[in-house]
Amino acid sequence: MLIEVHNLTKVYNEKRGLLPTSFEVEKKELIAIIGHNGAGKSTLLKMLAGWLLPDSGEVSVDGIDLKNRTALVRKVGFVPEAPNLFDFFSVEYNFKLFARLFQIPLLRIEETLEEFNLLPYRHNKIQVLSKGLKQRVSIGRSLLADPPVLLFDEPTSGLDFEMTKEIYRLLKSTHASGKTILFTSHRPEEIKTLATRVILLHQGSLVFDGPPREYFQSKIHENLYA
After folding, report:
1. Contact in structure between 151 and 48 (CB atoms under 8 Å)
2. Which domains does the chain have, with CATH numbers?
3. Are 9 and 19 in contact (CB under 8 A)?
């Protein structure tokens, strides 16, 4: 298994967080993590990315323990809902800062700028970009170190129709290149379009794990989203 999660737990109060949760992820899966607000979706991704320390439980990604944060960042790329970019620096310089941190060749920056159609914006400061372009930069940066696992928290939140289609294209092409992807979403059409598997969290607990078609035909979907 590429990812193994055993009894992962993070509780903020009685009504928020993630209760003991266990599941496994094989290579090249594309998994939608779904559920109502406060169900634990973002908390789960942040722990898998090493951004948030769990209260208890164990996680390994490609054999790397969650506690080994230095090694973990080379295995997992995380794209948060609000891109954590340096707004006063250019697109190119944001890439360069990340590349220096992981000793990535500068050629890789050029390849990424071209791959994500960012060459016209390489000298633009992040603060002047649209939300869609910021998301594209954030995804490109997450791929600079070529991690096997990518995590996306609400990747199309707040984007218009055309930019949403562009993000779908990027996610599909990234998955086709051999990456394993987990993403959170509230959009049924997004889940149906992208996911090969659905994990449903409800009030911090995992209550469904299976194919999208099976999920949308299930009583649990009807009961939660009626």
Report:
1. yes
2. 3-75+147-225 (3.40.50.300), 82-141 (no CATH)
3. yes
Instruction: Compute CA distances 180 → 75, 78, 102, whole Å.
Output: 11, 12, 20
Q: What is the pLDDT along the chain (226 residues), one digit of tens a residue?
A: 899 999 999 988 766 789 999 999 999 999 999 999 889 999 999 999 989 999 999 999 999 888 887 788 889 999 998 888 999 999 999 999 999 888 889 899 999 999 899 999 999 999 999 999 999 999 999 999 899 999 999 999 888 898 899 899 989 999 999 999 999 998 999 999 999 999 999 999 999 999 999 999 999 988 887 6
Q: Are 35 and 202 in contact (CB under 8 A)?
A: yes
Task: List, in order, residues 6 or more apart from 219 with CB less than 8 Å away.
Answer: none
> Residues 168-182, buried b or exposed e (16+ Cβ, 10 A)?
bebbeebbeeebbbb
**Strand bridging mode 197-202 / 30-34:** parallel
Count other Cβ atoms within 10 Å, centred on residue 86. 13
Those residues whose C-beta lies under 8 Å from the C-beta of residue 66, and which sit 6 or more positions away, are 47, 48, 50, 54, 58, 59, 60, 72
Cβ neighbors of 149 (< 8 A, separation 6 or more) are: 2, 3, 48, 61, 62, 75, 76, 77, 179, 180, 181, 182
Beta pairing class for 30-34 and 56-61: unpaired
